[in-house]
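stage 2 :: seqdesign
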């Protein structure tokens, strides 16, 4: 069927309103949870060591079982003696450090602290949970080392688990599209508000190069709007709950501000200390555009683009309030096309749709910008005309609309000739509420139809 058969309902969300939170929450929370797990690697590392230590003790020093367990690990695993010399390395460690020459090498020579002056002259087991660079490696990278006490407190050796965190602290590394496939911008920062990493999407939308943002404070992204990344309420909620979400403003290159729906998750320990945070920024512009589109579809006719019955009623009520304040008058005009059904039946629905569009353009071009031309459905149109000074002007309006239909017929002689039955109701003479005014304009239109069509009637009490 064509549009004359009725209007399509605009798509709506379940609760009647569009909510960015409800649409994005599931996706964003999943990304945040993935990165929260990555940020808590150090805790996982310790748990795995404790399990290994317990297994070693329970097996009574069964080295073969321990070796098999270590070989399955994704981490680098080393055992040093009381002199700090490497006595055991699993397969991953051998691959990373360059083979059997690793055995007997001092651990202090393999790891270089990232902090100048740290641990000079100290035993490797005092390094603690810091970041190191490998001095013997085919491809330089950074590692985080978690040294442990000797097994059972009595063995003259120390066990080292080393987890590879490539280029930690360098933006766009470890956060590429293959690692986390997402259209959203991602940013990782530490508890001091120092930016650690950003994915290519963030760098692109914010306009920064990796070297411009690496190690910079979050205040770099602040703008005049709130909330920003350094907002005190954001950090308070992160410390208390480990989570924050809402619209957030971010400064991009050129001092412009971008508003995103932002979800921030923090890795928080038992003492409430933040280990690191992941922020996921989702652009609200497509959502706002979608919301505008839904609002348009709910208030406009799809075929002609004219306001529909709902929007016409809203404008009529608004116009009545304004007219009461100014003491002027307004008119409601109902139009029903004469001879439209034969067009559909003989020429097809496509021809009928084309005719409806021509009528819509003709009526719109002839009315003032302040007037509202609407399609109510099928072959029915309505016009709201404000600023009437006298009810007698209603007759002039009816004649003008008839002239529009005559002009449409002359402009395209091959098109089917149609007329219009027109009914007019005037405020306040014919009704003081929208419902009464619409009903009486409808009665006047049927009076014009019963008179043979292609004419107009102004409401008279005798029609009720």
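stage 2 :: out
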């Amino acid at each position: 069927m064509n549009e004359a058969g009725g209007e399509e309902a605009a798509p709506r969300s379940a609760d009647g309103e569009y909510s960015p939170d409800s649409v994005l929450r599931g996706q964003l929370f999943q990304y945040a949870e993935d990165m929260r797990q990555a940020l808590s690697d150090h805790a996982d590392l310790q748990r795995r060591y404790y399990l290994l230590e317990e297994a070693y003790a329970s097996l009574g020093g069964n080295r073969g079982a321990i070796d098999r367990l270590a070989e399955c690990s994704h981490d680098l695993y080393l055992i040093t003696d009381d002199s700090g010399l490497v006595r055991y390395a699993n397969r991953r460690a051998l691959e990373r450090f360059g083979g059997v020459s690793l055995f007997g090498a001092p651990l202090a020579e393999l790891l270089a602290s990232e902090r100048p002056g740290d641990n000079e002259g100290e035993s490797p087991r005092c390094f603690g949970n810091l970041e190191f660079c490998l001095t013997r490696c085919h491809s330089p990278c950074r590692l985080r080392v978690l040294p442990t006490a000797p097994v059972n407190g009595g063995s003259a050796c120390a066990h080292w688990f080393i987890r590879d965190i490539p280029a930690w602290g360098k933006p766009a590394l470890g956060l590429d599209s293959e690692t986390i496939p997402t259209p959203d911008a991602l940013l990782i920062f530490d508890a001091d508000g120092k930016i650690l990493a950003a994915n290519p999407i963030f760098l692109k939308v914010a306009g920064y190069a990796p070297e411009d943002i690496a190690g910079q404070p979050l205040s770099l992204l602040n703008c005049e709007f709130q909330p920003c990344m350094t907002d005190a309420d954001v950090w308070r909620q992160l410390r208390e709950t480990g989570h924050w979400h809402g619209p957030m403003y971010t400064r991009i290159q050129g001092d412009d501000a971008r508003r995103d729906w932002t979800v921030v998750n923090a890795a928080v320990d038992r003492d409430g200390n933040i280990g690191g945070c992941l922020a996921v920024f989702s652009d609200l512009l497509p959502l706002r555009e979608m919301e505008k589109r839904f609002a348009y579809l709910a208030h406009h006719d799809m075929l002609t683009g004219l306001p529909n019955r709902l929007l016409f009623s809203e404008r009529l009520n608004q116009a009545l309030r304004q007219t009461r304040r100014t003491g002027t008058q307004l008119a409601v005009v109902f139009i029903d096309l004469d001879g439209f059904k034969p067009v559909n039946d003989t020429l097809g629905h496509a021809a009928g749709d084309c005719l409806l569009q021509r009528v819509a353009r003709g009526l719109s071009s002839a009315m003032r910008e302040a007037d509202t031309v609407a399609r109510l459905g099928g072959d029915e149109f309505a016009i709201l005309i404000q600023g009437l000074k006298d009810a007698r002007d209603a007759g002039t309006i009816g004649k003008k609309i008839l002239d529009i239909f005559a002009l449409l017929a002359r402009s395209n002689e091959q098109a089917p000739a149609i007329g219009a039955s027109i009914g007019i109701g005037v405020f306040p003479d014919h009704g003081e509420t929208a419902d009464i005014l619409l009903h009486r304009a409808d009665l006047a239109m049927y009076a014009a139809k019963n008179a043979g069509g292609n004419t107009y009637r102004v409401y008279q009490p005798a029609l009720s």
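stage 3 :: structure notes
- The CA atoms of residues 260 and 283 lie 5 Å apart.
- The chain has three domains: 20-26+169-283, 73-164, 300-463.
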